[in-house]
Amino acid sequence: MKKTNPHRPGWRRTTPIEGSYRSIFKWGAPDGFKHPNDKLYSFLKEALRMTDADFDQPGSQGDEPVKLPPQAPVGISDRHLAHFIALVGDENVNADDFSRLKYSSGKTTEEALALRRHHAVNIADAVVHPRHAEDVIEIVGYCDQHRIPVTTYGGGSSVTLGLSPVKGGVILVTQTHMNRVLDFSEKNQTITVECGMMGPAYESLLNNAPDHFDTGRRYTGGHFPQSFEYSTIGGWIMARGSGQQSSYYGDACDLVLSLNVVTPAGTIKTKNFPSAATGPAIHDFFKGSEGTYGVLVNATLRIFRHMPKHRKRFCFIFPGWTDAITAVRDISQGEFGMPSMLRISDAEETAIGLKQFGIDGTLADMFITARGYKPGIRCIGIGHTEGEKKFSKCVYRNIRKICRGHGAMSLTGYPVRKWEQSRFSDPYIREDLNDFNLIIDTLETSVTWDNLIPVYDRVRGYIKSRPLTICMTHCSHFYPQGTNLYFIFIGRFESSRSYIDFQRGIISAIADSGGALSHHHGIGKMAAPWMDAYLGPEQMAALRCLKKHFDPNGIMNPGGTLGLDPEIH
Amino acid sequence: MKKTNPHRPGWRRTTPIEGSYRSIFKWGAPDGFKHPNDKLYSFLKEALRMTDADFDQPGSQGDEPVKLPPQAPVGISDRHLAHFIALVGDENVNADDFSRLKYSSGKTTEEALALRRHHAVNIADAVVHPRHAEDVIEIVGYCDQHRIPVTTYGGGSSVTLGLSPVKGGVILVTQTHMNRVLDFSEKNQTITVECGMMGPAYESLLNNAPDHFDTGRRYTGGHFPQSFEYSTIGGWIMARGSGQQSSYYGDACDLVLSLNVVTPAGTIKTKNFPSAATGPAIHDFFKGSEGTYGVLVNATLRIFRHMPKHRKRFCFIFPGWTDAITAVRDISQGEFGMPSMLRISDAEETAIGLKQFGIDGTLADMFITARGYKPGIRCIGIGHTEGEKKFSKCVYRNIRKICRGHGAMSLTGYPVRKWEQSRFSDPYIREDLNDFNLIIDTLETSVTWDNLIPVYDRVRGYIKSRPLTICMTHCSHFYPQGTNLYFIFIGRFESSRSYIDFQRGIISAIADSGGALSHHHGIGKMAAPWMDAYLGPEQMAALRCLKKHFDPNGIMNPGGTLGLDPEIH
Description:
2 copies of one chain form a homodimer. By secondary structure, chain A is α+β, with helices and mostly antiparallel strands. Chain A has helices at about 20-25, 40-45, 80-90, 95-100, 110-115, 135-145, 200-205, 210-215, 235-240, 245-250, 250-255, 285, 320-330, 345-355, 365-370, 390-405, 415-420, 430-435, 450-465, 495-515, 530-550, and strands at about 95, 125-130, 150-155, 170-175, 180-185, 190-195, 220, 255-265, 265-270, 295-300, 305, 310-320, 340-345, 380-385, 410, 440-450, 470-475, 480, 480-490. Chain A contains 21 helices and 19 strands. The longest helix of chain A has 20 residues, at about 530-550. At the A-B interface, β9, α12, β11, α16 and β16 of A face β9, α12, β11, α16 and β16 of B.
């Protein structure tokens, strides 16, 4: 029997045209792509009842040059622009349409969908690239005096409408110049970096510390969000991010030793102690403030010894979801150290994962199935350990013992290596799907162990109640007290509006079921409308009290971020 | 040669008389004592150039019944007292001299010295024992309305003038009734307890969880400050405490999942998530607020599996102080998990420690000396590991390897067992010394590794510049980025004033050398005068902004705590 080549859609393989809308909304590197493989493509067609014909012609791809509508004029006067130019130089101020739109846009799905339709809302009046903290102090002071809104652009990878300058004003782009190392101490295992340093540059510096800092050892920053390649240190901290290895290294908040934040009320430079009992820790006031209190200009972070050779990879298949959950809880509470990476997928994500890992339909798959791990019920768990050699091995052995104790079978480390290859590239798949009018989006929440299943059932139930909608769920950040739940959905929507309504329904389902409004994406302007009910009036008043203190004129990322100034939303 | 019985001073072996000053200032259990052993007594005489005659007659022992001077009248009206009685019952309100003084006093050395002299300052007008959170809400609301100061008494073990109700008012004693478990979740490994639960009751509940909560496992709270037996959970959190095992379990702040705080501006009950990206974490605003924002009524804390059988004890003798420091830094940065307890002593503390452990002058001592560990230079390090069996062993083996790599020799686990026997009893020695006009006191600071020696040299230099003054120093809480430095001094002072001046000079030396004003004792009213210079005006303004918000009328622990209201100090 001759095997015919399968049909493959014309996935876009060309870089966006410079200056186009696509060059703004496309994820990541202009020449970076991740196309669905044949198995995933088949699955999508089957699950969403689509045919090859649906993938014949892509929809709007946003290749047109950016041109802002006349109703988006420069809202700050020439005098202000001239001031910024005089301060930072002509080359560091942009007021052209493309720059204004680019730096006003994050990577929220609804932003991408709008840009595809040339729909541009919430655009800054000018873009300024400060050269250093002193520039930021000058700019914030001037803008405060003249009531010009200031929004900070780090990596631009927000998926919560974290940018979206509702009131226009100035965007400060920190990644252009403010990406230097200010201090490094091997003795203290700390590094002080400017806020605009991007993840890969940071990690590369630390991995190659012997070359850069004349150290005896290599180091790692330990922070690897999926947006790693297009995220900044400032963004990690100010949006309370987590990374794929945060179960071991800690969330972004935990990495901070001290912060230096420029606010309209002055500059806050906190102390550099590993711990102190000198009143409430003021750096904590800023973690998660999402630019509403001030601009983080630099931070001193904890770094870690880098020993990648000690990594032990594992992959287990569990009989079912509750087995997997019980196992990872046991791991997280086991008092033997944490794995550096750990992820368990529910049955639907497992089925798709096995396709992506190239296991589905193979002899291995048949073997697994024959051993009683039933498709549609079985769940996969992957991870790896790190640290000192014997420690890493000890953690691995404990995990293996626990997983086996919960009925799991080892699938070797192969799937983890596959996962590692694509750990930062999965977001690229969005453009391919969007090109053919499919929407993929993600929402996440934090839960204690006893609330995991109720939140999972409620949120997944809501998503699956929509016909022809894929819902993949996993847990990927672990604490002795709970975990995060991460939902990925894929579907066809008749309009952006119907997608947004559905997506907001997921946030409501999370809130109603008692999950956190976010585990690591942040709140931005997207989840902000839920904040009052979520935190309650007393806690919102405390956040607003600090807002009023640090930013009395309401110029810092105004327009609803965190729900602090909803009246002007 | 016949050995004569050595002279022994008449160390006090009788419990304080009920209602006496001594019953207030004496540390811990009324019938608890720790007398200097013969070797330590000899050492004290030698080091301080004293003779047996100096220990013939004790000074004032504070055995007289408490009687407040007429200039300390009840400052709140009978109407207010009647209100409190109507609210909580007659049995839960005290306005007698003894109760007022007892619950207005912490364990700061200068408080003890003053009480010995019947000198009573800063006394509350009334003592109220709230029965539950609702009582606290009522009382705080009433006091806010009537501008009556409110100070919270937890375990009463503050050594920073944390109580000391400068403006009088009401003391809320939480340990009397508010010591219940409100919730327990084995699945989440959390417990919700009222603020007034004492350390031993808490730990006993958790160790015996199978009996109390029908759990499958035993648990530990992991928090063991030296004041353990006379400290409360509320105090641990609100003063940012640390314990002897915090290097492994985390500082008090790290144990908190959520807090419930009653403030004049309303009740703050934070969310119970292990981590969340929903704006600044509001529970962090209260950690270390030392009662100036509100009353912590209950908290949900992380608990840990209790596996004492896995404990591995170790003790090493290092050639010198820098060897010991380098070793513990290497341990803290080693990425193999942390020991549960670890402490290195400088040469002076080592010399005294070897006397206390009964090693000094023995054959073992001669052997150690012969091996090149010279008295006066050598330094001792002790500790133990915990957790899962293989993990604990792995940590131990790494520590052993590192210590040996820094020239240390193992002294077996014996000194650790000795230390464990007296881990909470050392403070009892203060009364014996004070009885004979010797003063012992402690101050601590937090340092990064690169600042350890400069701070040590400066502070120790200051202490040793005073003639005939013993100074023992150790590090006992470890982080990859640094440690705490703990100074103990003993000397004879001609007056309380001269002692206080000298002690304040130590705080100045710490501040001037760049150490933190406190690592885990807190600030209270003692270090408060240094806060403005320490944090700077911008950070103090942020703390005062929250003070104004939560406590607009300045009734919560007023009179200078944390330096938030210095104008009324």
